[in-house]
Amino acid sequence: MRILVTGAYGQLGREVISQFSKEYQIIGYGKKELDITNEENVGTVIKKISPNVIIHTAAYTAVDTCETNIKQAYEVNTIGAANVAKAAQKIGARMFYISTDYVFDGKKEVPYLENDETNPLSIYGLSKLAGEKSVLKILPVCTIIRTSWLYGHGGKNFVNTMLQFAKQNKKVKVVDDQVGSPTYTVDLVRVLLALMNKPDGIYHVSNTGSCSWFQFAKRIYQEAGADPELVIPCTTEEYGSLAKRPKYSVLDQKELVNVHIEPPRKWDDALREFLRKELAND
Fold first, then answer.
1. Distance CA 36, CA 6 (A)
2. Of 69, 71, 84, nearest to 35 (Cα)?
3. Most-buried pick from 128, 228, 238, 282 (CB within 10 A)?
4. For the CA atoms of the chain, what is the radius of gyration?
């Protein structure tokens, strides 16, 4: 089976290639090899490779920057996803589209189910939801995976940023009124592998349990051997981000359970493993 991975040089794309290449023939393309915003280029490249499966991890994920680069956010997250779906549909390939918890508004107080009403608060969330809808319209039979607070090796992410601050014993303010589930790319990809033999549909995948960004940062400092008291809580308003974020975006993984896949381990266990690997490479 031949699998094409878009966004191959991102932290998720790299992890997909690392794990999937043990079982499948993998072709990983970044934006130099595959410009997803160019429909003609996407059609030509995908027809030439003729993969059985496309795992679409390419995305514009800078949440605050999306607020000012609206055109680019939609070109990549919506039109790009639609272009990949059209090419997949033409050659009869299965498609996996990676989406986000930011399609929800965070007004719920219990975890979000796969069929809960979406209502994004940011351009990033809106462009990713529009991507979901475009893909589903072109390919009604496809797999959409919503994940949250993603971090992995070799990428720019919250954990790596906090780890650098911890090493410098830097005092840092972190929001304490946004709650979600941090997700380690290694664990997300393990589930992706399991979903290869399961029905298409919308699935929520994250590490289990939840925390605020402040609690998350505090744990990173602790695990890195720094003083967790250097992490100071603040409100979203005090922090003053450009993009609105959901106050609560924990994902219920009911659909995974329905297809007999066990949701990933607790977020703090996953974080511990990630940090152990990162610190060992120092």
1. 8
2. 84
3. 128
4. 18
Provide the 8-state DSSP code for 122: S
229 in a domain, yes or no? Answer: no
Q: Contact 80/138 with Cβ under 8 angstroms?
A: no
87 occurs within a structural domain: yes
Sign (positive or negative) of CA dihedral 232, 212, 193, 7: negative
Residue 256 lies in a domain: yes
Instruction: Express each pLDDT in 238-263 by its tens digit.
Output: 998 999 999 999 999 999 999 999 99
Rounded to whole angstroms, how far apart are CA atoms 116 and 74?
23
User: Tokens representing 229?
Assistant: 């008291």
Look at the pTM and tell me if it is higher than 0.85.
yes
Instruction: Identify the burial level of 127 via C-beta atoms within 10 angstroms of its C-beta, where 0-12 means exposed, 13-18 middle and 19 or more buried.
Output: buried
Helices (H) and strands (E) in the chain, counts: 12, 12
Cβ–Cβ under 8 Å, residues 12 and 188: yes
SS3 sequence of 227-241: CHHHEEEECHHHHCC
Residues 248 and 95: their CA atoms lie apart, in Å, by: 29
Which residue carries 């994902």 as its tokens?
A: 251
Provide the domain limits for residue 143.
Answer: 2-156+182-207+249-265
Beta carbons of 238 and 201 less than 8 angstroms apart:
no
Closest CA to 56 of 73, 75, 25, 34: 34
Residue 57 falls within a domain, yes or no?
yes
Residue with tokens 């079982």: 23
pLDDT in tens, 43-61: 999 999 999 999 999 999 9
Residue 36: which CATH number? 3.40.50.720
Q: For this structure, is 124 an active site residue?
A: yes
Task: State the total domains in the chain.
Answer: 1
Q: Which of 29, 60, 97, 124 is catalytic?
A: 124
